[in-house]
Every structure is written in C-alpha cells, then in structure tokens.
Write a structure and sequence with these properties.
Chain lengths: 142, 211
C-alpha cells in the first residue's frame, strides 16, 4: 500500500520536475531568440510550429537517452549529424546570448568602433571554432 | 466649388509586393466616402522598382502626401498608422528550385533545433546533476538507493515534453486558447525590430524616399 502511494508521489513529483525544467529551459531559448533568428535568417518563419514540434521530440528523445541509456541505431552518419547540428545550435546560442547582453554594441561604443562589425562577428565565430578545436581535438581540456 | 472630399490612408510597417510597379492601394488601405476618388487615388503609382531584382525601399508617408496632393489637390488626406514604411519588392519566382530551397532551409533549421534542444537537455541534466538528485530523493524516501531508473525518471521524461507543450501552447492550441505561441510572439517582435532598424538606417543614410 505505502509503496503504491510512494510511487504516485514519485510520479507526480517527476512530472512537475520535468514540466518546470522544460518551461524554464524553453523560456530561456525563446527569450534568447535562437530559433527565431534561425527562422528569420532562412526566411522560414511560417514553419515556426514545425520547429516547436521538432524541439519537443528532440528534448524527449535525448532525455530518454540520457536517463535510461536508450540505445540508438546509426553509425558514423548519425554521429556526424549530431556533431554538426549540436555545433550549429550551440553556436547560435552563444552568439544570441552575447547579443542579448549587448556585448557587441557596448564594446563598439566603448572603443568607438565605426566600421568592421562583420569582422568582429567573424572573429567571434572563428574564436569559438578555434576554442572547440583546441579543447576537443588538441586535448587541452584533459 | 465642389465639396471637399476626405481620403483616409492606413499604412502598415512592411508590405511585400510582387509587381515592380507599386500602386498606392497595394501599400495602404484607402478609404473615402467618394468611391470614385478612392479608386483614383488607389491607382496612383508610388514607385517603380528596377526589373527583376529583390529590393527593400523605405518611404515616408510625406512622399505619399506629396504624390496625392500633386495629382488631386482638392482632396484632404488623413493618414493613420506608420509614419515610415517599408516596401519589399520580391519578383514572383515559383520554380521547383525555390520550393526545394525553402524545404532545404526548413529542414536545416529543423535539424538544428532538434539536435540543439536534445543537446541542451543533456547538458542541463548533467549540469544540474540529475543523476545525483533522483537517487537522493529515492534514498530519502525509501531509505535505500535504487539500481536503475524508476518512477521519478519516467515521470520526469513525460513532464519534459508536457512542459514544452504547455509553454509553447502547442498541439492543444484550439482547446486551451487561441493566443499565439511565445515563439510566434518572439518572431513578430524580432521582425518589428528589424523593420525599425531598416527604417532608421535608411533615414540616416538618406536613402529614404522623402519629400
């Protein structure tokens, strides 16, 4: 009896943990504006609902893999896809985060930069790429 | 002298046109008590884009007033809405290639969102040490840890998509209410910011069609 009660409590607790985490995480992603910017950049704003659906499936699947050690089929191609799109999304996230906190406008005003904004962005992107390469491939993180 | 006719013009911030010759009725909603005047003014040509090239042009409402007053000095104009507006000219292209490109781009973004949200939930789980928190709860409530995942994990995994569905107001849209989703709100907000920036830039660089 008490085991059943406990199970119900667990289930309710887990359900609310998940809902709260998901709402928080996606409030963050929405505010930072990664998806909207990707959609605006590719002029596919009308498919925004598809992107929402896809996000729901992505989170659910990855969470299952993480918590229950689900085995996923696929070989090198799936790994390449994973790596590439992890990178694309996290790159967007990093850039969007920098933008939300006004890193670029503040910096450019401080040093009175008038031109060369595209180079600044390029440098940002290359820096991220270099950092990842240095950390993961050269093994500086080990 | 005939009685003066008032014409009302309403402008939106951004209008998309497919033909290079832009008539007033395409960029504004025109209203007048005199239907003939309404029709004439709607047919006035505001601008003609160069052939075949995508272009965005910023106009001041003053330009419209000038145009109308020059042709029909007797009408009285009342404008509502934006003081500056963007006309985006996009020649109609409906080849299979355009469609394919659109699908390709949508697929790319969908993949990025799918893998990206997958990655962020794993990093979140690791970051907040879920593997320690759940066993801790089992320990506190049952006095012993469990070998594997239990009810908490299963419910958590159900709660995650549920939370996003609730947050995005997804799937159940019609049932809950007809508000747009936060992502759609954010999208519009972003487009509005972009339009405002285009208008500001055009004014600063003197590229605005003004009087």
């Amino acid at each position: 009896m008490s085991d059943t009660v406990l199970s119900v409590v667990y289930a309710l607790a887990g359900l609310s943990f998940g809902a709260a985490v998901a709402a928080g995480l996606f409030a963050f992603i929405t505010t930072v504006g990664v998806v909207t910017r990707l959609a605006a950049g590719t002029k596919t704003a009308k498919y925004i609902k598809l992107y929402e659906t896809v996000a729901i499936f992505g989170v659910t699947l990855a969470n299952g893999i993480d918590l229950f050690q689900w085995e996923i089929f696929g070989g090198v191609i799936v790994r390449c896809l994973c790596g590439l799109f992890f990178g694309v999304f996290i790159g967007c996230l990093a850039a969007a985060l920098a933008e939300v906190v006004n890193v670029f406008p503040v910096m450019t005003r401080r040093i009175k930069l008038k031109a060369g904004m595209p180079y600044l962005v390029l440098a940002f992107a290359l820096g991220k790429g270099f950092g990842a390469w240095y950390h993961l491939i050269l093994g500086a993180g080990k | 002298m005939s009685q003066q006719v008032t014409v009302y013009l309403h402008f939106d911030q951004c209008v998309l046109v497919k033909k290079r010759s832009v008539r007033l009725e395409e960029v504004a909603s025109v209203f007048s008590t005199d239907p003939k005047v309404k029709q004439n003014i709607g047919k006035l040509e505001l601008y003609c884009f160069p052939e075949g090239k995508k272009e965005k042009k910023v106009f001041s409402v003053m330009k419209v007033i000038e145009l109308v007053e020059r042709t029909y000095p007797e009408v009285e104009l009342t404008t509502v809405g934006e003081a500056d507006f963007i006309v985006e000219y996009k020649p109609e292209k409906n080849g299979p290639l355009t469609k394919l490109l659109e699908w390709g781009k949508t697929g790319f973004v969908a993949l990025a969102v799918f893998f990206g949200s997958a990655f962020t939930i794993i990093t979140f789980n690791k970051d907040s040490s879920i593997e320690e928190i759940f066993p801790m709860i089992y320990r506190l409530t049952e006095g012993a840890e469990r070998g594997g995942p239990g009810e908490l994990e299963i419910a958590y995994s159900l709660g995650l998509p549920l939370g996003i569905i609730l947050f995005f107001n997804h799937f159940l849209r019609k049932k809950i209410d007809s508000d747009p989703t936060p992502l759609q709100v954010q999208m519009r907000q972003y487009e509005k910011d972009v339009n405002a920036t285009i208008i500001e830039n055009a004014s600063r660089e003197g590229k605005k069609e003004d009087v």
